[in-house]
Amino acid sequence: MADRRDHRIIDGKAVQHRLLAEIRAELDAAAKTHPVGRLVSISIGPSPEIEVYVRNQARAAAEAGLPFEQVVWPAEATQEDCKRKIAALNDDPSVLGIILQRPVPAHIHVRSLQSAIHPLKDVEGMNPASIGNIVYNDIALAPCTAAAAVEMVRATGLSMPGLEVVMIGHSEIVGKPVAFMLMAEGATVTVCHHMTRSVAMHSRRADVVIVAVGKAHLIGPEMIKPGAAVIDIGINQVTDAAGKVRILGDVDTEAVREVAGWITPVPGGVGPVTVAMLMRNALTAHRRQVAAGWLEAIEA
Amino acid sequence: MADRRDHRIIDGKAVQHRLLAEIRAELDAAAKTHPVGRLVSISIGPSPEIEVYVRNQARAAAEAGLPFEQVVWPAEATQEDCKRKIAALNDDPSVLGIILQRPVPAHIHVRSLQSAIHPLKDVEGMNPASIGNIVYNDIALAPCTAAAAVEMVRATGLSMPGLEVVMIGHSEIVGKPVAFMLMAEGATVTVCHHMTRSVAMHSRRADVVIVAVGKAHLIGPEMIKPGAAVIDIGINQVTDAAGKVRILGDVDTEAVREVAGWITPVPGGVGPVTVAMLMRNALTAHRRQVAAGWLEAIEA
């Protein structure tokens, strides 16, 4: 495990706590004029692998001062059932935001359900409309993981304008939004992927390398420019020779930190910040709902 | 003027005619089962600078076998008038597509009017919803200029997967859509802009350089790798010392073609292909309207 006192390691927990304290202060102020509703986490069917996520979200919500309700719908719920229930949550002014936990049962079409969440309640930033808006630099409710990666770049203190960033991975919910969000801040972004001829040619010249591929230890020290920042979004479950299950990032953290100027560990890097971004989206959702006239002002 | 018989020059007119012939054949086939409506070009107020554009569009429409109607609304039309009229065109099944010519009078909000055009009739691909869909690789109705740039890359015959592309300029309607469309085909794309530390560092390593900045002769031969393809989207009106007005691209074509493997001239490069893309979008719009059940089948 990386030593958290190593100044090269960006401690995601510390960033999370700082962000949650800021969000709490802003929510407390906002709550004086307009009621702050609750976050509703939806799981469909029993699914032990998401419990740890939900628990982390509930804990972060408490730290941010946000009411958090966990609902579990039956595994046999139909797509139509789920849509109808989401529509009811959209209409309920006491619901600030909706989180749809994944995985869902095989008969549920997850993208379609995500589209059913109203964009102003889409605190995960997963609605295709929200993601499309990123093209227009409207990053109000960005996908949380992408927003967390950007926050990690910010945590380095590097100046964004002109920053040379190489994004490895071009998924709709991470790679592409990250590229857009950093472009909007003035960075020069190259997006690499499985068809890129030489990822190393790009990563070795970058000030910041962000990796979201899903291959354990894909990125070694020979791919990083000395002093660069390395943001690792990968979460890979690997069983070692002794049969022990470990969580590894896409970056060989131990080796790369000897070269990098900054590096995010896995676990304990981008993950905790992603949860904080969910709460920041909730704060933004509240502001947007106030601006849209959805919430009645509290009388003085 | 560049010699069009120079094999390095990609002749936009020739590409246009080839594309329009292909589109005409497909439209002729489509018209056997479902009626093909007309394109409606809307100008608001008199505006001599757009006449040449409209004329070129009308000519290309004729070549593709598409009915083309030009309407001019009064300069004093309000935003609400225009929206109402666009809604009527959206509802009219004999209207295949709507083109909103620019510039519009100062009191008209152009982006809002573009949003009023139904996405299935948005043959210019300017509706924010259409552009947002590009994130999801749904490039059905892409902005015409961006689509034309991609078509020009295709005209080189270079294989897209792994192609190293540098896009200079990151506007919503050209740079960003081009980046996404080429990423979707497997290219590795870097987007440079006014805050990029060294554009030359990127452009000199690229297999393809695409420029959409709006600065005459910004790109010289020292910025291009020998044998690379150079796609010039710039259209700059420049008055020379003798008082003569000339149209120049963002690329110093005469100098760069001594280095480049392929180059698109200005005028006569991307421009004519952009008009062909408008007709290709019309063909796509027809297919989508048929799929959506908007058009009644012709009885045999």
Topology:
Two copies of one chain form a homodimer.
Chain A lengths: L11 H20 L6 E7 L6 H14 L3 E6 L5 H13 L3 E6 L9 H7 L11 H6 L10 H12 L8 E5 L6 H10 L3 E5 L6 H5 L4 E4 L17 E4 L3 E4 L5 E4 L4 H4 L5 E2 L6 H22 L9
Parallel strand pairs in A: 1-2, 1-3, 4-5, 4-6, 6-7, 7-10
Antiparallel strand pairs in A: 8-9
Helix pairs in contact in A: 1-2, 1-10, 2-10, 6-7, 6-10
Please describe what this structure looks like.
Chains A, B: It catalyses: (6R)-5,10-methenyltetrahydrofolate + H2O = (6R)-10-formyltetrahydrofolate + H(+); (6R)-5,10-methylene-5,6,7,8-tetrahydrofolate + NADP(+) = (6R)-5,10-methenyltetrahydrofolate + NADPH. Chains A, B: Homodimer. Chains A, B: Residues 10-124 form the Tetrahydrofolate dehydrogenase/cyclohydrolase catalytic domain. The first copy, chain A, is of the alpha/beta class. Chain A has 10 helices and 10 strands. Chain A has helices at residues 12-31, 51-64, 79-91, 110-116, 128-133, 144-155, 175-184, 199-203, 253-256, 270-291, and strands at 38-44, 68-73, 95-100, 164-168, 188-192, 208-211, 229-232, 236-239, 245-248, 262-263. In chain A, the strands form 3 sheets. Chain A has a 5-stranded parallel β-sheet with strand order 5-4-6-7-10. In chain A, strands 2-1-3 form a 3-stranded parallel β-sheet, with helices on both faces. In chain A, helix 2 links the parallel strand 1 (38-44) and strand 2 (68-73). In chain A, helix 2 (51-64) packs across helix 10 (270-291) and helix 6 crosses helix 7. The longest helix of chain A has 22 residues, at 270-291. The termini of chain A are far apart. Strand 5 of chain A pairs antiparallel with strand 5 (188-192) of chain B.
